[in-house]
Specification:
26% strand
């Protein structure tokens, strides 16, 4: 089972799943992050819903009790360690991969 919210260093990494699209669940996500007393950058990994497209990763600042929607950005350059960890988590969760939008060919390429 993939954790949807993890704090990694000073950022919150939020992973979309087949059942959880974080950008459509901002109120729920706001409550989760506020309960963690988190403030800072939130990185959204949208692999499950956007696939390997250039908009796989996006970010937005969280101000402790709300998102700063004006800070939303598609991320071209993601910390390589975070990207590797996200890829490893996905590769080790077949249920996650099969629930994603990845085609069979894309899954094969992603796994190698």
């Amino acid at each position: 089972m993939t954790d949807t919210v993890r704090i990694v260093g000073g950022i919150a990494v939020v992973t979309a799943t087949a059942d959880f699209h974080p950008l459509r669940e901002i109120k729920l996500l706001t409550a989760q992050l506020a309960s963690l007393s988190f403030e800072g950058m939130v990185l959204f990994d949208l692999l499950s819903v956007n696939g390997l497209a250039p908009n796989r990763f996006a970010s937005m600042k969280f101000l402790g009790n709300r998102f700063d929607r004006s800070s939303f950005a598609v991320e071209d350059h993601v910390n390589p360690a975070v990207r590797r960890e996200q890829n490893l988590i996905a590769k080790n969760d077949q249920t996650f991969l099969h629930g994603s939008v990845l085609s069979t060919d894309e899954m094969k390429r992603f796994m190698h």
